[in-house]
Amino acid sequence: MEKPGEKPLLKSVFTGENGDVEEDCSEKFPSVGPMLTSKLGGFCNRKFIFKRLPILQWLPAYEARFLLEDIVAGLSVGLTVIPQGIAFAVMANLEPQYGLYSAFMGCFVYCVFGSCKDLTIGPTAIMALMVQVYVGSLGANFAILLTFLTGCIILMLGLLNLGFLVQFISMPVTAGFTSAAAITIASGQVKSLLGLPGRSNEFVDSWINVYEHIGQTKLWDAVLGFTTIGVLLLLRSLRSKWSLMGKYLALSRNAVVVIGGAALAYYCSTFGSKPFSLTGTVTPGLPPIKLPPFTTVLNNQTLAFNEMTSMLGSSIIALPLIAILETIAIVKAFSKGKSIDASQELVALGMCNIFGSLVSSMPITGSFTRTAVNNNSGVRTPLGGIVTGVLVLLSLGLLTDTFYFIPKTVLAGVMIAAMFFMIEFHAALEIWRTKKVDIIPFMVTLVSCLLLGLEYGMLIGIALNICFVLYMTSRPNIDQALLRTSSGIEAMVVKPDQSLIYSSIEYLKHEVVKRTDKTQVTTVIIDGSNVSYVDSTAAKIFSSTIEELALRGRTVLLWNWNRSVRCTLIRLNKVQFHPLFKNGGLEQLDKEICNESLP
């Protein structure tokens, strides 16, 4: 009973024309104003700041005993990223120093915005390959601008909480893409491994180039290259041997072979001999801090911002997508079952690229190899990234003269050895064992990436996977059972296993009518226990299904449908649908069938 002065409660029922109590099925359009106020208001509160700046969460809880472990991990990652960064820059058709410019800013920025202690942001083989494909001979300014644009797009997706979009890219597609990228990268390094001329990094073109120039193989480049691969694989196997010494020797294996190769080349040069192709001059010193180039000069022509972006083409979309895929996949792999905030990782990755563009970085993303090194080194917090960044800066200031003597074949060996473990053979076997049909998007993505390029192969894989999903949603499973009432009346119960939308309703209609004709029952009961949503197209076709069954002399009952779905159908045609809805157990259903069957 309402108290005096109290506002009456809103009712969800009303009285119909026949005096029966009926549901109020009116629908109100969502109020946009309060929703926007709630979202925009969240940008100013304490919870949002702590969410977007994870350093405010882990730094106050930092313990002194973590420091040594973070320093060791940071040094291990630094010794890995320095030779890799140089190799990636060469792969991207940039001067070697740009690989080091790309290797330190991401470490600093991710320490503030990142939420995964193991993840390291920097240059990667896949991003270097994509830069080479799109930027080619356009010059470093295009790569730096691409870094800035990539960061802006990723940051925007993160701030709009669109991290969930990566859920639409399945594991078979991701595994196929990663495997194809590894094969493509390794194929592109064969020419440097053998000392052959040519610049192609695409899979097919790389092997054509090797076939055409195999006679020009440089013996000592090939010997040193294959030796490098062998030593790397041997050192990697020492991770579980020789206790602490073997562990850290394995973690720093890239630095070991690069230092050894450079020392050998320098030793040979003291005798006036140059048996290896060398990296060459690396510009010393730290990069200037400046805005990314929004104009540039190419072939004596000044290009404006819109002309530069036009020349970059689809890379402005492809690189952010690939960067997001790499980072989210790595965070998931090292989260150890913990939930991850994909949107925050996008914010962190976007900021890393934007700040990186201020120091002439090429596009960067999460590195699986260095993240594994970080994890194996026992890192405790993202502070390890600061140590890595400082080590890279020191190498830029003090060691660039020694980089001149690094043999290209050693860098190629480093790349090829790393790619061996990126090809996901285990994922293919796991997919085949778990669900054989999922091997199709894996293989299609793999082959498409190898033959058409990584970006097109990825899009083809995603499109195929979406087609699989759409097909499954358009073919719901329909359980069928025959029911005999206490009075001897036979009825058929059909129960779809999912919600009804425009893509699945025609199939349901066809199956219900076909099964009704086959069983020749007089009453059809459609159990809606599993139906939580019906769209307008499905409601309209569902109405025509009931009409068609009525024309065939069948009685239709709608059993155990939830309120939301009932209201959707009643709003379409109250007269048709309202009398058909029934609820309760089998006894109540038995009575309803008998009542409906009475003349």
From TrEMBL:
<feature type="transmembrane region" description="Helical">
    <location>
        <begin position="384"/>
        <end position="403"/>
    </location>
</feature>
<keyword id="KW-0812">Transmembrane</keyword>
<protein>
    <recommendedName>
        <fullName>STAS domain-containing protein</fullName>
    </recommendedName>
</protein>
<dbReference type="InterPro" id="IPR011547">
    <property type="entry name" value="SLC26A/SulP_dom"/>
</dbReference>
<feature type="transmembrane region" description="Helical">
    <location>
        <begin position="410"/>
        <end position="427"/>
    </location>
</feature>
<dbReference type="InterPro" id="IPR002645">
    <property type="entry name" value="STAS_dom"/>
</dbReference>
<feature type="transmembrane region" description="Helical">
    <location>
        <begin position="248"/>
        <end position="267"/>
    </location>
</feature>
<feature type="domain" description="STAS">
    <location>
        <begin position="492"/>
        <end position="569"/>
    </location>
</feature>
<dbReference type="InterPro" id="IPR001902">
    <property type="entry name" value="SLC26A/SulP_fam"/>
</dbReference>
<feature type="transmembrane region" description="Helical">
    <location>
        <begin position="312"/>
        <end position="334"/>
    </location>
</feature>
<dbReference type="Pfam" id="PF01740">
    <property type="entry name" value="STAS"/>
</dbReference>
<feature type="transmembrane region" description="Helical">
    <location>
        <begin position="439"/>
        <end position="472"/>
    </location>
</feature>
<feature type="transmembrane region" description="Helical">
    <location>
        <begin position="98"/>
        <end position="115"/>
    </location>
</feature>
<dbReference type="Pfam" id="PF00916">
    <property type="entry name" value="Sulfate_transp"/>
</dbReference>
<feature type="transmembrane region" description="Helical">
    <location>
        <begin position="219"/>
        <end position="236"/>
    </location>
</feature>
<dbReference type="InterPro" id="IPR036513">
    <property type="entry name" value="STAS_dom_sf"/>
</dbReference>
<dbReference type="GO" id="GO:0016020">
    <property type="term" value="C:membrane"/>
</dbReference>
<keyword id="KW-0472">Membrane</keyword>
<feature type="transmembrane region" description="Helical">
    <location>
        <begin position="164"/>
        <end position="186"/>
    </location>
</feature>
<keyword id="KW-1133">Transmembrane helix</keyword>
<feature type="transmembrane region" description="Helical">
    <location>
        <begin position="346"/>
        <end position="364"/>
    </location>
</feature>
<feature type="transmembrane region" description="Helical">
    <location>
        <begin position="135"/>
        <end position="157"/>
    </location>
</feature>
<dbReference type="GO" id="GO:0055085">
    <property type="term" value="P:transmembrane transport"/>
</dbReference>
<feature type="transmembrane region" description="Helical">
    <location>
        <begin position="71"/>
        <end position="91"/>
    </location>
</feature>
